[in-house]
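During the second year of the project, the team shifted from modelling isolated chains to modelling whole assemblies. The rationale, set out in the original proposal, was that interfaces cannot be judged from single-chain predictions alone. As a representative example for this report, we include one of the complexes processed in the last quarter. Its constituent sequences, exactly as entered into the pipeline, are reproduced here:
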Amino acid sequence: MARQATGAAKREAVAEVVRDEKFNARRIELAEAALETLGELGFARTSLREIAQNSAFTHGVFHYYFSDKLDLICCCVRHYKAKCVTRYDDVVVTATSRDELTEGFLARLAATLQNEARMHRLWYDLRSQAMFEAAFRKDVLEIDKSLEAMIWRIASRYAEFGGKRPASSPAALYALFDGLFQSALLKHLAGDKAAIPELLDEVRRLLPTVC
Amino acid sequence: MARQATGAAKREAVAEVVRDEKFNARRIELAEAALETLGELGFARTSLREIAQNSAFTHGVFHYYFSDKLDLICCCVRHYKAKCVTRYDDVVVTATSRDELTEGFLARLAATLQNEARMHRLWYDLRSQAMFEAAFRKDVLEIDKSLEAMIWRIASRYAEFGGKRPASSPAALYALFDGLFQSALLKHLAGDKAAIPELLDEVRRLLPTVC
DNA sequence: TTTTTACCTTGACAACTGTCAAGCTCCGGG
DNA sequence: CCCGGAGCTTGACAGTTGTCAAGGTAAAAA
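Output from the structure prediction step:
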């Protein structure tokens, strides 16, 4: 009987794990749909109904999978994080020289700005929201840290190729690149065709002086 | 009769100018009230009624002085600009040495972060909004340019004291300081007591290397 | 097969939004 | 004195919002 009970308990536990996984998978699916609309409209103008309309579901589902709107958006932020903090890592790994690293980095930078502008303006939007809404702060600060580390990996590798060490702190380096990217993104979205090449030039000039 | 007509026309023109000035003064007064609420709640959560409730007026007035909500917020942005782009100018003018400039700059930086955090998080919020709302872009890009020039004045003066020229472009310098400030602001708002001193340390270390 | 459960839809709710028209008040000019 | 209009308030409007409960459906469990 003890064996039977244990068997039943095990089966139940497995079933629960499966259920949880399905639940979580749907959460992420919904968060991904939400990210689409958020990237299009921004935090201020995005409603649950609008999100639902741009997805395969109806607005009620979101309340089944998320406790409220903040919960949904927090999930979006966390999911976004996983996607973006490894964006340049393969370049860092595969590059075998300064030039290769530079060109790989710049190419990906340009592609990101060109193809994922909407996702990135959303990131800046949500980071600003975190200054007002405490619920976002923890996740946003974590992402910021991850991005800082990502930049630091690039800079360290670059310096390494020159037998040097980066000339500034991780915080300053991240601030610099983030600031440049943000500015370029705004100009790009405003229709400035020169925004991307100007960013590339600036970064190309800057890399040897900071690393 | 010609003289009479001219006189009447003149009087009328003067009256119109006075009326326009009064109109504009009230617009600014309302924009200032709106800035208070915007700084408290952020763009996403601020309604006209909320703005009115935190002011001496009722919600209808805003429609009398502004064509719509965007018009009001654009006016806010423009008014904010006039305030903030001259924040460090007297330090630049009065400083007579590198140290004096550094300490003046750092002191004002700390004071700004401490006392005007709400206004600055609003700036970052609205700059992000500009990535979604085209109506904001022109003013935001203008302010960004003014801020870049402001940083450039400080850096140039600093370099001048050392008989040098700034080592980077105005855009890169602004990106750097803006990025550092933005990061420090978020940490400060999140309750991180070390945010301000860390920013000051970072800037103190950075100034001699970039100028 | 029957019953239960997970999942999703539908519709309703109260609150809130930007907008605006009607009307009030009070002051300066006739 | 009164009268017109500038300046402001009030209240209403249509639409939108987050939230949630009631109900349906299909798959799993019994």
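Chain A has two domains: 2-73, 85-210. The mean pLDDT of chain A is 93.
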